[in-house]
UniProtKB/TrEMBL annotation:
Domain PAC: 73-125
SMART domains: HATPase_c (SM00387), HisKA (SM00388), PAS (SM00091), REC (SM00448)
Species lineage: Bacteria, Pseudomonadati, Planctomycetota, Planctomycetia, Isosphaerales
Every Histidine kinase domain range: 284-501
The Response regulatory domain, residue ranges: 523-638
Xref: InterPro entries: CheY-like_superfamily (IPR011006), HATPase_C_sf (IPR036890), HATPase_dom (IPR003594), His_kinase_dom (IPR005467), HisK_dim/P_dom (IPR003661), HisK_dim/P_sf (IPR036097), PAS (IPR000014), PAS-assoc_C (IPR000700)
Protein name: histidine kinase
Source species of the chain: Paludisphaera mucosa
Highest taxon, organism lineage: Bacteria
Keywords: Phosphoprotein
PAS domain span: 1-68
Reaction catalysis annotation: ATP + protein L-histidine = ADP + protein N-phospho-L-histidine
UniProt enzyme class: transferase
C-alpha cells in the first residue's frame, strides 16, 4: 500500500531480474500493467537506451544483482514505453536481503524527468548562447559577481589589456593588474551609480596602464537581473582612445579651417581695401603728376612763342618750381619706402629746435604768401636743445605747415608754437582751416589718407605726408597727435620729441650748399640715353664755361672718351646694353681715363646703390633729377 501511494514509479524483481511488482506510477510510465509485467524479464518491461547513442543502456537492476550495491542510471537515459514513446528518466536500484543475508530481490525507483531535462537543456543552451555572445563581443567585457569579483571576461578584454584568464577570473576587480584597476571613477560607477540604477551608459574614464599606456574608456554597466536581488554586473569597456584622438584632431582641424577661413576673409577684405587704396593712390599720383606737367608744358609753350625777357623769366620760374614739386613727390615716396623697410638712418646731433623752426617757416613762405595766410611763429621757452636729425625735423615741420596752408582757406591763420613741456620739446601747428571729421581723426596718420579727396576740393599731395611725420617722430623717440573740433573748426597737430639734457650751446647752423667754383674749365663727358637730359646738362655746362660732349650709349661714350680725354664724366646708370657700373669699370681700365672724376647719376639713392657705385669706381653719386648747383659744387671740388 505504501509503494502504491508514493509519487515515484516503483518496480521490483526477484534475484534473477524477473518482474514481481509494479506500482501504478510504474504502470503509467512503462505502459505495462502489473499483471502483464509479472513474470517478465526486466529488459522486456523496462527498455532503456542512451539518449545520444541510442544504444541499450546497462540495467541498474543487473548491476545490483551482480554487485549487491545500490546503483543509479547513467545520465541521458531514455525509457522506451510499451507504445514506443521516449521518456527521460532518473532512477536508482537497491538490493533486498533475506534473514539469512541472501539476495531475495531488487527494488528500483524511477521518475519522469523529461520536463526537467528540457529545462536543463534550455538553461544550457542559454548559457552557451550567452557565453558565445560574450566571447565574440568586440569590446572588452567583464562579468562581475555582486561582490565585484570577476566571474569571467571575454577574449577582447584579455587582448586589449594584455592579461591572462588566470590573472583575472575570481579576482577582486580593483586588484586586477596589481591595483591598476583601482580607478576612482570606476569605484563611483560600481559602488554608487549601479546600485541605484540597473543600467548606466557611457561613463567616460581616462586612465594610465603600465602595459598599454593611457586609455580613454566608455564604461557601460548593467546589473543582472535588473530588478530585485541581483547576482551579476555586466561591465562593457569601450576603448575610445583613438576615437577621442581623432575627435581632437578633427576639432583642431575645424578650428584651423575656421581660423584659415577667417584669415582668408580678413585677407580678402584687406586686399580689397588695398586695391581700393591702390586705385585711389594711382588716381592721386596721376593727378599730382599731371598738374606740374601741365604747368611745365605751358611754360615751354610760352617760352617758345614769346621772345620777351619777362615771359622767359616766368617760364623759367614755373619750370624750376614744378621740377621742385616733382622732386618733392618722389622724395616722399622714397622716404615712405625706406621707413617701411627700416632703412632710414637718423643723423642725430645736439641742435637748437628754434633754428630748425625758422628754416621750416622760410621753406613754406611761398605757399603761405600765395594763399595770403598769416603765419605766426612763437617760442614759449628759450632753451630748445634736443638730440635730433635737423633735416628730418625740418621735414616734419614743413609737412605740417604745408598741410595747414593747403587746408586753410585764403586769408586764414596758422601758428607754429615751440616750447618745452615736461621732458619734451613740443611743436604745435594750429590753423583755423577746414578741420577734420571725427571719424577720420583715428586714420589721419595712415598711408594715403587725406582729409578730402573729392575732385572739386583736392588740395594735392599723395596722402603720405602725415605718415612720414608720424614715422619720423617715432624714430626720434617721440610721437605726433591730431585734434579737431570737427569740419570747419580748424585743427592742431602736436609733435613731442625728448628734450636734450645737455645745456651746452648747440652748433646747429644751416647746411648751405658750397659755392660752386667755376674758376677752372673742365672737359666734361655727359653719358645718358635720354637725349633731352644729356643735351640739357651739356648746354648748362657750356653756359658755365666748361667744354662738354654728349654720348647716348656706353659704346659711343668709350669712342668719344678716347679722343676727348674727359676730366669729368657724368654717367647715367640705366644705360641700354652695358650699364653705367660696367661703363665705369671700363673707363677705369683705360690709361687715359684713370685720373678722371666719375660722377654717377641714378634714380636710386639708397645706401646699397651708393655702395655699388663706389665699388664700380665712381667718385660721387647724384640722385635724379640732379640739381645743376650740386653738379657745379662737385666740379668746384675737383
Amino acid at each position: 500500500m505504501t509503494l502504491s501511494a508514493i509519487g515515484d514509479a516503483v518496480l521490483t524483481t526477484d534475484p534473477d531480474g524477473v518482474v514481481t511488482y509494479m506500482n501504478p506510477v510504474a504502470e503509467s510510465l512503462t505502459g505495462w500493467s502489473a499483471a502483464e509485467a509479472a513474470g517478465q524479464r526486466l529488459e522486456v518491461v523496462f527498455r532503456i537506451v542512451n539518449e545520444e547513442t541510442r544504444k541499450p543502456s546497462e540495467q541498474p537492476v543487473r548491476k545490483v544483482i551482480d554487485t549487491g550495491l545500490v546503483r543509479g542510471l547513467a545520465n541521458h537515459t531514455l525509457l522506451i514505453t510499451r507504445d514506443g514513446r521516449e521518456l527521460a528518466i532518473d532512477d536508482s536500484a537497491a538490493p533486498v536481503w533475506g534473514e539469512g543475508g541472501e539476495l531475495v530481490g531488487v527494488v528500483m525507483v524511477f521518475r519522469d524527468v523529461t520536463e526537467r531535462r528540457l529545462n536543463e537543456h534550455l538553461v544550457d543552451t542559454a548559457r552557451n548562447f550567452a557565453e558565445s555572445i560574450i566571447s565574440t563581443v568586440r569590446e572588452p567585457l567583464l562579468v562581475l559577481n555582486a561582490d565585484l569579483h570577476v566571474k569571467s571576461a571575454n577574449r577582447s578584454f584579455y587582448e586589449t589589456f594584455r592579461v591572462a584568464p588566470s590573472e583575472t577570473e575570481g579576482r577582486f576587480i580593483y586588484d586586477l593588474g596589481d591595483g591598476q584597476w583601482d580607478i576612482p571613477a570606476l569605484r563611483t560607477l560600481l559602488e554608487e551609480v549601479i546600485p541605484r540604477d540597473s543600467t548606466f551608459n557611457d561613463f567616460e574614464v581616462e586612465h594610465d596602464f603600465e602595459d598599454v599606456g593611457r586609455k580613454t574608456m566608455l564604461l557601460n554597466a548593467r546589473r543582472f537581473p535588473p530588478e530585485g536581488k541581483w547576482d551579476l554586473i555586466l561591465l562593457a569597456i569601450a576603448d575610445v582612445t583613438e576615437r577621442r584622438r581623432l575627435d581632437r584632431e578633427r576639432e583642431a582641424m575645424l578650428l584651423e579651417a575656421e581660423a584659415a577661413r577667417t584669415k582668408a576673409e580678413a585677407t580678402a577684405v584687406k586686399l580689397a581695401e588695398a586695391d581700393l587704396h591702390k586705385n585711389q593712390f594711382l588716381a592721386m599720383l596721376a593727378h599730382e603728376l599731371r598738374n606740374p606737367l601741365a604747368a611745365v608744358r605751358n611754360a615751354v609753350e610760352v617760352a617758345s612763342r614769346s621772345g620777351s625777357r619777362e615771359d622767359l623769366e616766368w617760364s623759367r620760374d614755373v619750370t624750376a618750381r614744378q621740377v621742385g614739386n616733382f622732386s618733392h613727390l618722389i622724395n616722399d615716396l622714397l622716404d615712405v619706402a625706406r621707413i617701411t623697410e627700416g632703412k632710414i638712418l637718423l643723423r642725430k646731433e645736439l641742435i637748437d629746435a628754434a633754428q630748425v623752426a625758422l628754416y621750416a617757416v622760410a621753406a613754406v613762405k611761398p605757399i603761405v604768401e600765395e594763399r595770403k595766410h598769416e603765419l605766426l611763429l612763437s617760442f614759449t621757452s628759450t632753451d630748445l636743445k634736443l638730440e635730433a636729425d635737423s633735416t628730418r625735423l625740418e621735414q616734419i615741420l614743413v609737412n605740417l605747415l604745408t598741410n595747414a596752408a593747403k587746408y586753410t582757406p585764403a586769408g586764414g591763420h596758422i601758428q607754429l608754437i615751440v616750447g618745452v613741456e615736461g621732458g619734451d620739446v613740443v611743436f604745435r601747428v594750429r590753423d583755423d582751416g577746414l578741420g577734420i571729421a571725427p571719424e577720420l581723426l583715428p586714420r589721419m596718420f595712415d598711408l594715403f589718407t587725406q582729409a578730402d579727396r573729392s575732385l572739386d576740393r583736392s588740395e594735392g599731395g599723395l596722402g603720405i605726408g602725415l605718415t612720414l611725420v608720424r614715422s619720423l617722430a617715432e624714430l626720434h623717440g617721440g610721437n605726433v597727435t591730431a585734434t579737431s573740433d570737427g569740419p570747419g573748426e580748424g585743427s592742431e597737430f602736436v609733435v613731442r620729441l625728448p628734450a636734450s639734457e645737455a645745456r651746452t650751446e648747440a652748433a646747429s647752423e644751416a647746411n648751405e650748399e658750397p659755392e660752386a667754383s667755376t674758376a677752372r674749365r673742365f672737359r666734361v663727358l655727359v653719358v645718358d640715353d635720354n637725349v633731352d637730359t644729356a643735351d640739357g646738362m651739356a648746354m648748362l655746362l657750356k653756359l658755365s664755361g666748361h667744354d662738354a660732349r654728349v654720348a647716348h650709349s656706353a659704346e659711343s661714350a668709350l669712342d668719344v672718351a678716347r679722343d676727348f680725354l674727359p676730366e669729368v664724366m657724368l654717367l647715367d646708370i640705366g644705360l641700354p646694353g652695358m650699364n653705367g657700373y660696367e661703363l665705369a669699370s671700363a673707363f677705369r681700365g683705360l690709361e687715359s681715363s684713370k685720373g678722371s672724376v666719375l660722377i654717377a647719376v641714378s634714380g636710386y639713392g639708397e645706401p646699397q646703390a651708393r655702395d655699388r657705385s663706389k665699388e664700380a669706381g665712381f667718385d660721387h653719386h647724384l640722385v635724379k633729377p640732379a640739381s645743376f648747383d650740386a653738379v657745379l659744387a662737385l666740379l668746384g671740388d675737383v
